[in-house]
Structure formats: structure tokens, C-alpha cells
Amino acid sequence: MTDDSNTPDPSAGEWHPVPTIFVDGVLGSSTLGGVHRIILGEFVFNTVPGATNATAKPVINLNISDAALPFLIEYLQNLPRQAQNAG
């Protein structure tokens, strides 16, 4: 089996690589005018001796329409099953 992860999809227009971003959680969300905004972030731990709190750092702002939101939800709901099947 070949790896086709970098193969262009002719129906998707021009292909270009996108960055990989690791996130720790959702920092916030909002909805306005049929667009849902989800801000994902990472938690940066304070290395100062005696510090107890981490700092939340936004890393990506995801905006998705009402029409596309059900597909994102379905994808996210299937992730645990896919991970279990892979392992």
C-alpha cells in the first residue's frame, strides 16, 4: 500500500501543504450569524520555582459554518473509535 497523504485531490483545486499544530484544549467558542468560532490552544507551564498555574496560549482560530459543523462533530465523535481500532 502506498502513502497518498501528499497526493493532490483533483476536485479540490490546488493542493498545498498545511502546518501541523498540536493543541491541548478548547480555550473558547462563540457563534454569530451562522459561523461558529472555536479557539484551540496549548497550556504553557510556568517553570518559575513555586509557580502553580499554567498559561493558556491560543494557537488556532477555527471558523466553521452551520452547514459544515455536523461533519466536524461526526468526525470528532469517531476519533476515539478510530484510535482504538488503530492500536
What does this structure look like?
The protein is of the alpha+beta class and 87 residues long. The protein has one domain (21-86): Transcriptional Co-activator pc4, Chain A (Roll). 21% of the residues lie in helices and 36% in strands. It has 1 helix and 3 strands. The chain has one helix at 69-86, and strands at 25-32, 35-45, 54-65. Strands 1-2-3 form a 3-stranded antiparallel β-sheet, with no helix packed on it. The protein is extended.
Strand order of the largest sheet: 1-2-3
Elements, N to C (H/E) = EEEH
CATH architecture: Roll
- Taken together, the total number of domains comes to 1
Gap between N and C termini: 19 Å
| Uncertain parts | none
Give the CATH topology.
Answer: Transcriptional Co-activator pc4, Chain A
User: Which sheet architecture does the biggest sheet show?
Assistant: 3 strands, antiparallel
Radius of gyration: 18 Å
Mean pLDDT: 85
Please report which band the strand proportion falls in: under 5%, 5-15%, 15-25%, 25-35%, 35-45% or over 45%: 35-45%
Contiguous helical run count: 1
Q: What would CATH call the class? A: Mainly Beta
DSSP E strands, number: 3
Could you estimate the helical fraction of the residues in percent?
A: 10-25%
Supply the helix-strand structural class. alpha+beta
